[in-house]
Amino acid sequence: MALRSASRLLNSRFINQLHKRNYADEMSFTFAAGNKVFYDSQAVRQVDVPSFSGAFGILPKHVPTIAVLKPGVVSVFENDGNVKKVFVSSGTVTINEDSSVQVLAEEAAPVESLDISAAREALSKAQSQLSSASTDRAKAEAAIAVEVAEAIVKAAE
């Protein structure tokens, strides 16, 4: 009997949480890099980010989180239905309890501005540097350059 009551209590709490988590709500979004501010506390519906723990989507009322960005595409779903895609080389994402989200990228560029031939050339150069690297530091730096260049090529295709 007590188990049944607890089950009903948990179910009603769960249902109340679902009603409180109205995913049509907006969240305040800030997205900046050293070279540009893309969003400055603007309201958006959803943000998808590439992370070393796996790519994930952020909706309003997301659990507070701090994550490290890996090279890839941040997709921003704006309230008017548009989706903006921005390539990031690295950075951080912070999701706050008040539903505000900040993405701080080391470097970032709109996907439509990426040059596929330049990206392939950078990848080839980085792979060459990796194969000829003689110190641990040079190998690590070249491996990072390869990872970023591969992500740029993928984003530009």
UniProtKB/TrEMBL annotation:
GO terms for cellular component: mitochondrial inner membrane; proton-transporting ATP synthase complex. It is found in: Mitochondrion inner membrane. Its main location: mitochondrion. Residues 114-155 form the F1F0-ATP synthase delta subunit C-terminal domain. It comes from the Eukaryota. GO terms for molecular function: proton-transporting ATP synthase activity, rotational mechanism. Keywords: Acetylation, ATP synthesis, CF(1), Hydrogen ion transport, Ion transport, Membrane, Mitochondrion, Mitochondrion inner membrane, Transit peptide, Transport. Residues 29-108 form the ATP synthase F1 complex delta/epsilon subunit N-terminal domain. Component of the ATP synthase complex composed at least of ATP5F1A/subunit alpha, ATP5F1B/subunit beta, ATP5MC1/subunit c (homooctomer), MT-ATP6/subunit a, MT-ATP8/subunit 8, ATP5ME/subunit e, ATP5MF/subunit f, ATP5MG/subunit g, ATP5MK/subunit k, ATP5MJ/subunit j, ATP5F1C/subunit gamma, ATP5F1D/subunit delta, ATP5F1E/subunit epsilon, ATP5PF/subunit F6, ATP5PB/subunit b, ATP5PD/subunit d, ATP5PO/subunit OSCP. Subunit delta, of the mitochondrial membrane ATP synthase complex (F(1)F(0) ATP synthase or Complex V) that produces ATP from ADP in the presence of a proton gradient across the membrane which is generated by electron transport complexes of the respiratory chain. ATP synthase complex consist of a soluble F(1) head domain - the catalytic core - and a membrane F(1) domain - the membrane proton channel. These two domains are linked by a central stalk rotating inside the F(1) region and a stationary peripheral stalk. Belongs to the ATPase epsilon chain family. NCBIfam families: ATP_synt_epsi (TIGR01216). HAMAP family: ATP_synth_epsil_bac. This is ATP synthase F(1) complex subunit delta, mitochondrial. It comes from Henosepilachna vigintioctopunctata.
